[in-house]
Design goal:
It is a single chain. By secondary structure, the chain is of the alpha+beta class. 27% of the residues lie in helices and 30% in strands. Helix 4 packs across helix 5. The protein is globular and about 75 Å long. The relative contact order is 0.11.
Length: 551
C-alpha cells in the first residue's frame, strides 16, 4: 500500500516519462543529477510502454519493458508486479533503471484491475497468479534474448505478495524478492479475532471498490459487517504464501523477505513464521518504521536497504553473478531507534534473546512497581470500565506514524495521563542496566468481561521517568468472544516482535485498554472488565530481554 506524497508522485512521473522518452533523449523534466544516469541507460537498451495480454480475455496488463541491446548473451529477466498504488508499474522507475544497468531485461506491470490495467481485482487471487505466468510467456515469446532459465520476481507490498504466490505456482521462477511482504493475509486482517479495520479500509480505498470481482465485493461487505469470517479466512488462506510452504521448500526457492517492526498493514509474526519455516536460501530484513518506509527511496533510484538487497539477491540467484559485500542470508535488522546500525545473525534462533518472566503484580500497589521479575503475585484483581480510548494507541495513523519514527521523530506518549478507570497499567522498577529486547513478547492474563465480548489492546512502553515521555515498543489486540457474559478466561497473547534498546534508569510499562483507532473492537461500551491473577494461573509477561553494552 503506497499513497505517495505529492513530491514523490512528481518524481515518479518525471522518471517514468524519461524512460518512455529514452530513445529521443528528452530528459528536460528530470532533475539535473539524473540526466547522466538516463543517458547511460539509453546506451544500454530500449524501453517501451506495452500492453501484455493477461490470462483471461478481458485482462490487458499495462506494463513497461526495458530490453538490453547486447544480444551476445542471454539476458536474465526480472518481473515486477506493482505495489498497490494509483501509479501502478510507474512506481518502479528507479528499480527498472537499476536492474537495466545490471544487464536485466526488466518488466514492471500493473496487476489486473489496477491503475491502467483492465479486468476485475481478485486481491492476489488465482487470476493474478495466472497473469504472472502470462507475463513470463509474453516475454519469452517476444524477446529471444530473454533467458528462460534465469527469471526472477521482485515486488513491494501488493507486488510482494503476488510475486511469492506466482513463484509458488510457476516453477520457471528462480528467486523472489518480497519487500513489505505478507505471509498470512488472514492474520493481517483478523488477528486474535480482532478485525484490522483501519488497514482494511485503507487498502480498499486504493483498490477502488468499483473494480473488484463479485467474490471480492462480497468478502469486503462481510468483513465490514463482521459476518462469514470463516469464508474470509478461506479466501485469505488461498492468497497466503504460508499456505504454499511445501511448494517453496520442495524447490529450495531463494526468498528475500522485508518487513518493519511497527508494520500496521501485514502481520509481522506471520512473516517471521514463514521465514523460519523456509528451508531454501532465505533472507529476512526487518527495519525501523512501518509499511514501505524505506522502499520509496529505492523506487526513485536512491539507495535503500530493501531495494539494494533485492538487486544483490537476484544477481546471485537469477543472474548468477558475483556479488560483493556481506552475505544477505539470515536475519538482518535495524533496532529502535538507530537505523544506521544493522545487526546480523544466521537465523532467527540465534538472533532473538531468551525470554525473562515479569510477573504482573497488583496494579493498585502504591509503590507503582508492579511489573516484577521475582515470584508470582497471585490473588489480586482489577476492574475498569470499557469503551473509552486512552492515550495508549498502537499508532495514531497508518504508515505515516512509522515513517516519522524512521525519520527520528517517534510518537511520544504521556502514560501518566492514562485514566485508571479506563485502563490498567503495570510498571517495572527503573532498570539497573541498559537492556535490549529482541523477539516476541507474550502476555498471559485472566480476564472476566461483564459483557459477552470485549476487545483488549496490550501495549509495552519504554518510559523515561525523568520527563514522563514514553515510546512504544510493541503491541497486540485480543478479542474475547464468550458464550455468556461474565465468563472467565485465561489467555496468552503474542505481541508483535521487536528489537529495542532501553536505557538504564528507564522503566518498562504494560498498558491494557479496550479501544484503539486501528481496530474494529467488540467492546460493549460501559461494560466492566476484570483482569486478575488467580492462584495457579498467575498473570505474567515474558519479555525477550537481556543486558547490552552501548558504545
Amino acid at each position: 500500500m503506497f499513497d505517495f506524497a505529492p513530491e514523490e508522485k512528481a518524481q515518479l512521473k518525471a522518471q517514468s516519462e524519461a524512460l518512455e522518452k529514452l530513445g529521443s533523449s528528452d530528459f528536460k523534466d528530470l532533475p539535473e543529477g539524473l540526466v547522466e544516469e538516463y543517458q547511460v541507460l539509453r546506451k544500454l537498451g530500449n524501453f517501451a510502454r506495452v500492453s501484455i495480454p493477461g490470462a483471461d480475455a478481458e485482462v490487458v496488463l499495462d506494463a513497461g519493458v526495458f530490453v538490453p541491446t547486447d544480444i551476445s548473451r542471454a539476458a536474465p529477466v526480472v518481473i515486477m508486479p506493482a505495489p498497490l498504488a494509483a501509479t501502478g508499474w510507474e512506481s518502479y522507475p528507479g528499480m527498472i533503471r537499476k536492474f537495466a544497468r545490471r544487464g536485466y531485461l526488466a518488466v514492471a506491470y500493473s496487476q489486473r484491475g489496477l491503475a491502467h490495467s483492465s479486468g476485475k481485482i481478485e486481491v492476489a487471487g488465482p487470476g493474478d497468479w495466472a497473469d504472472g505466468s502470462a507475463v513470463i510467456n509474453w516475454v519469452l515469446a517476444n524477446y529471444p534474448q530473454a533467458n528462460p532459465e534465469r527469471i526472477g520476481f521482485a515486488g513491494s507490498s501488493y507486488g510482494a505478495g503476488t510475486s511469492l504466490l506466482i513463484a509458488a505456482h510457476d516453477e520457471r521462477v528462480r528467486a523472489v524478492c518480497a519487500q513489505s511482504a505478507w505471509a498470512d493475509l488472514g492474520r493481517s486482517l483478523y488477528e486474535n479475532e480482532t478485525r484490522h479495520l483501519k488497514a482494511f479500509e485503507a487498502l480498499v480505498a486504493l483498490f477502488g471498490e468499483d473494480r473488484v470481482s463479485t467474490e471480492v465485493g462480497e468478502i469486503f461487505d462481510d468483513f465490514r459487517a463482521n459476518r462469514n469470517i470463516d469464508r474470509l479466512l478461506e479466501f485469505s488462506a488461498e492468497r497466503s504464501p504460508l499456505t504454499y510452504l511445501e511448494m517453496f521448500n520442495r524447490r529450495s526457492l531463494p526468498i528475500f523477505l522485508g518487513t518493519y517492526w511497527h508494520e500496521t498493514i501485514f502481520s509481522v509474526p506471520a512473516v517471521v513464521e514463514f521465514y523460519r519455516a523456509l528451508t531454501g536460501p532465505k533472507s529476512l530484513l526487518v527495519q525501523i518504521g512501518d509499511h514501505g518506509g524505506d522502499e520509496v527511496i529505492g523506487f526513485l533510484g536512491g539507495i535503500s536497504r530493501p531495494t539494494a538487497t533485492s538487486q544483490r539477491w537476484l544477481d546471485r540467484y537469477v543472474a548468477e553473478a558475483s556479488v560483493d559485500g556481506a552475505s544477505d542470508h539470515g536475519v538482518r535488522a535495524e533496532y529502535m531507534h538507530n537505523l544506521f546500525a544493522l545487526v546480523q545473525q544466521p537465523d532467527w534462533e540465534s538472533y532473538v534473546v531468551p525470554p525473562r518472566r515479569f510477573h504482573l503484580g497488583d496494579p493498585g500497589d502504591p509503590s507503582g512497581e508492579t511489573l516484577l521479575l521475582d515470584n508470582p503475585r497471585p490473588g489480586w484483581s482489577r476492574s475498569f470500565t470499557a469503551g473509552v480510548d486512552t492515550p495508549a494507541t498502537v499508532a495514531p495513523t497508518l504508515v505515516t506514524t512509522g515513517l516519522q519514527e524512521r525519520l527520528g521523530n517517534p510518537v511520544v506518549y504521556r502514560t501518566a495521563e492514562i485514566p485508571d478507570e479506563h485502563a490498567v497499567v503495570w510498571s517495572s522498577p527503573p532498570l539497573a542496566r541498559h537492556q535490549r529486547i529482541i523477539g516476541s513478547t507474550r502476555l498471559r492474563f485472566t480476564v472476566t468481561p461483564s459483557a459477552e465480548s470485549v476487545t483488549l489492546v496490550a501495549h509495552l512502553f519504554d518510559l523515561n521517568p525523568a520527563n514522563g515521555r514514553a515510546l512504544i515498543i510493541t503491541s497486540a489486540p485480543y478479542t474475547f468472544l464468550n458464550d455468556v457474559p461474565g465468563e472467565t478466561r485465561t489467555v496468552e497473547v503474542e505481541l508483535q516482535p521487536a528489537h529495542y534498546v532501553i536505557l538504564a534508569g528507564h522503566q518498562l510499562q504494560l498498558v491494557v485498554d479496550s479501544k484503539d483507532i486501528l481496530f474494529a473492537d467488540a467492546t460493549v461500551d460501559g461494560s466492566t472488565i476484570e483482569i486478575s491473577s488467580p492462584d495457579g494461573e498467575e498473570s505474567y509477561l515474558d519479555i525477550p530481554i537481556g543486558d547490552v553494552e552501548l558504545s
